Amino acid sequence: MTMSSDQARPTPHTRDYFYVGGSYTTGSGGLEIAHGQLYVEHLVPIKKICSIPILFIHGNGMTASNFLNTPDGRPGWADYFLAQGYEVYLIDQPCRGRSPWHQGVDGSQSAMGVYKVESRFTATAKYKHWPQAVLHTQWPGPGTKGDPVFDAFYRSIVPSLTSPVEVSRLMKAAGTQLLDRIGPVILVTHSQSGSLGWILGDSRPHLVKAIVALEPIGPPFRQAVFASTPSRAYGIADIPLTFDPPVSSPSDLVTVILERTTFYTNIQQAPPARRLTHLACVPVLVVTSESGYHAMYDHCTVQFLRDAGVDVTHTRLEALGIRGNGHMMFMERNSAEIAGVIEHWVSKALPIPNEGP
After folding, report:
1. Residues 6+ apart with CB under 8 A from 177
2. Residues ≥6 apart with Cβ < 8 Å to 151
3. pLDDT tens digit string along 269-321?
4. Is-catalytic flag, 191?
5. What pTM was estimated for this model as a whole?
6. What proportion of the chain, given as a percentage, has pLDDT over 70?
7. Which is the catalytic residue, given 65, 99, 191, 193?
8. Residue 321's CB: how many other CB atoms inside 10 A?
9. Are 183 and 252 in contact (CB under 8 A)?
């Protein structure tokens, strides 16, 4: 699918921004500062049709700019959904981008080097770090340093907090305040923010009307592909979620290994699985690309959610005839086609009344 000239034009809209959350604390040199606040960008189409807005949360090393336009200059997913009549919110995660990080108050940061970005996101067929990597064809250009599209993308990448627990706590605090302020949303997460989507859905199930998780961080309990260290002590999150029977510590989650491969280990709750009572109220779509490293293990995350009573649709793009995409699918050449898949699922899973004339 290619974009028509009409689709390629930016959708008329209004824009404003605000900050939410955070608190005052004492920083370096005894200065009183605001800490933990969340930058929020708010876009409203001139022709607003849908009553429930979309809230985008970017992945690791990224900011809200991920969804504004693609590195090769096409309108991004924010514009796509504006054109369909959706109000759009985008954020910079706490201590990231326009949400300030304070030395001596916030935890350590890390950055992604060129090699990591090329080998995992933009030029995976060149590096072949996992079997499906050779299928990657949709990145616009060679995906390597020196190519203008890659350079534009790489210059947008920023340092991120190293501790996923710190990120989760800050995002839960500020993110729930955001939801309380703006009301019901359709939540779209990507990669590292996948766990943040589960946390917000668990914290405000009456306000998160649906979750679209683009290759959410996983698999449960352990890193995969590039490491095998324990992670996500609560299965799909680094901080507690609402289970039934209740969980007072990670050790309450009894686990079993169902698969062990070179690239990942599939660890699930031992039956009978505890139920995620709040998330069970939220319909979920997990989207997996054909060639990204998540192609190997997203089914593990889906199984954890389903065993816990969550209503999950798992869409593998190649099963729909959408081939060659990688982890950054929303920036790739056929990104509008993938956005259409998401919009179709939302319309079926969550019929949204129009705003009216």
Report:
1. 20, 21, 38
2. 145
3. 999 999 999 999 999 999 999 999 999 999 999 999 999 999 999 999 999 99
4. yes
5. 0.95
6. 96
7. 191
8. 7
9. no
